[in-house]
Amino acid sequence: MKRLRLATVWLAGCSGCHMSLLDLDEWLFELAGKVELVYSPIADVKRFPAEVDVTLVEGAVANRDNLELIRRVRRNSRLLISFGDCAITGNVTALRNPLGDPAPLLRRVYVDNVEFPSGAPPSEEGIVPRLLERVQPVHEVVSVDLYLPGCPPSAARIRAALEPLLAGEIPHLQGEQLRFG
Ligand code: SF4
Predict the structure, then answer these.
(1) How far apart are CA 142 and CA 115, in angstroms?
(2) Are 70 and 138 in contact (CB under 8 A)?
(3) Which of 54, 119, 152, 172 has the most CB atoms lying inside 10 A of its own CB?
């Protein structure tokens, strides 16, 4: 039987959603028998591959690297799941939004108020990517197929979403499973 090609992506988030994924404990062995993990921060794959069946996306879109990656993820994922509150609403990551464009603040911190300024805030695509003016939840940038709320979603909730997918069905989370926070 063809195994489901599964990916997990870490954008601007604290990695807590991925920690919760690891909390699936022994069920991870069962999962490993049914999926091929083709991309994840817990696997050493550098480039998001083509033809992924299901992708869990943790975190919001906060910088140019996030933006580039989420567009590539969308092009190559059959089903994209917003995984956790940061992906769905911006949550903690978006707390900076009321301050507006972060450029003046970065300049103040890295240039104006330091003894030996380098002349500009650190910026290097792929290493220190430029921040976007505003943090965006994933669905504001690309289309999302399913939402898995929680900060982080519990392991039980993650399993409730993945089990139907493994059976070729769309999960229908309801009640407590849809709670934020
Ligand atoms: Fe971390 Fe919560 Fe955001 Fe997940 S939803 S990345 S646990 S802050």
Answers:
(1) 42
(2) yes
(3) 152
User: Candidates 8, 10, 14, 83: which one to mutate for ligand 1, based on the most atoms within 8 Å of Cβ?
Assistant: 14
CA 17 / ligand 1 centre spacing (Å): 6
Q: What is this structure's pTM?
A: 0.94
| pLDDT digits 0-9 by tens, 114-137 | 888 778 888 887 788 999 999 999
- CATH superfamily label, 4-94+132-168: NADH:ubiquinone oxidoreductase-like, 20kDa subunit (3.40.50.700)
Bridge partners of residue 58, in order along the sequence: 10, 83
**Where along the chain do its domains lie?**
4-94+132-168
Distance of alpha carbon 69 from alpha carbon 61, whole angstroms: 9
